[in-house]
Amino acid sequence: MSPEEYKWQVEWVQSQYPALKLTFAQAEAVFQFEQERDFDSADDFSHWEKLDFEYDTFQRILTPEQLRRYQALHEANVQAWLQQLAQFDAAAAENIPERQRHLAYCRDELIPALYREPLLLPFGSLNEPAKQAFVVAEYERFLRAGKKRALIEHYRQHRQFAPRILQEQLLHFELLALMPDYAEFIEAADAPTRAVVQFLFEELRSDIGYRYDDILSRYEDALVARSRTEFEAQHGILPEQVQGYVIHTKYSRDDHLNQWTLALLWLGRHPADYLRLRWPEVYGK
Description:
By secondary structure, the protein is mainly α. It folds into two domains: about 5-80; about 100-285, no CATH class. The protein is built from twelve helices and no strands. Helix 1 (about 5-15) packs across helix 2 (about 25-35) and helix 2 runs antiparallel to helix 3. It starts with a helix and ends with a helix.
């Protein structure tokens, strides 16, 4: 940056804070702060952290009288962000009833029906029990780590001002605890876990293949139909009737088989649940 460009940048900073009447030296300090704050890197501040960082920095730069005027500007920025958070929270609230219904459907209808299918469970590898247990344990770790990461990010971004956004996130993890999501799991997995998953799932490919063709595809079709019905009930039209509607992802047969392989391994991890729902007259409801 040439001296002329630098001078222009500092004077531009002065023009952005007319109420503060920054000196050239103060504007230089603010300019350096903004360069540090906005540096492009993998890590970034949340909006709240930016506000806190700015306030802490300006306290050291401004005179007491300037700081008094700045505090009014800072409070206005805080209130504007709170209003925006309220809008985000209201938008999340619209999704919660459908998420709750889908969760209840999986818990009360889909999973009990899968347990009662006579040829579906138990499912797994007799040759690789250790790898099977490892995948189940890694999925449980993925759930716990993912939920913690989501909570950390939520409170960084929203503090306590968006409870329905948090509720929507927690409902998502409740659903993942009932019915695994292979795509989310494998995206978060490290290389060794991916290698074990690939090896084990290849071994189970023929077993899951006939189960999918004979049984699971029916449940998949029911899930798709239910999703379309929910969309129509919420929006008054079917998804494909939305202007500009595009199917972004085409799932291959392998995608479907991987999803159901993980689901059956997860559902079969507690034999007592399987026995109770498969033979309630013997093992109790």
